[in-house]
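Incident review: delayed structure delivery

Summary: a single-chain prediction request sat in the queue longer than the usual turnaround. Root cause was a stuck worker, restarted by the on-call engineer. No data loss occurred. The affected request and its eventual output are reproduced below so the record is complete for anyone auditing the incident later.

Affected input:
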Amino acid sequence: MFFLCSEALGSARQDQDAAAIDNYIARQARRERAEEYREARKVVVGDLTHDGVPETVVLYTIEGQGGTNLHIQYLAVFSRQKGKLSAVTHADVGGKSARSVELRSVEDNAILLDTMGYGPKDAQCCPSVKGATRYVLSDGRLREQKKGASQGRHN
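Output delivered after worker restart:
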């Protein structure tokens, strides 16, 4: 009986968390006159604030801004406030003509990302330079630690 009850509570919390993330991204997409490419969303959980309490990190893509073929990848951090997820901050971390990023994990109080940057002969569709970068949460903002980061177009 206890197992079923705790499982139902866990499921309800997951549903609430998903709804909070969905609402946050939908509001941003409306502001940009665009929509989320939902299939590209990735969520990981880990401690970014050295307090032993995990934050939720979301990599998501918003595309079609104002009817264009632009897409921007964002990283958002959510913390749990009174049992519910609440957005802390977000930052743009990649996108068309910048770089492509994949969320790998949260380790050692940092968000680890694999990147694909642009080489001198790469077309806008196809970055080919592999790299990695990391973001830390500092004073309520995401800050990239540049060592090993692929930095946008190189041509």
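Verification: Strands lie at 35-36, 42-46, 55-63, 71-81, 84-95, 100-107, 110-117, 129-138, 141-145.
Action items: add queue-age alerting; document worker restart procedure.
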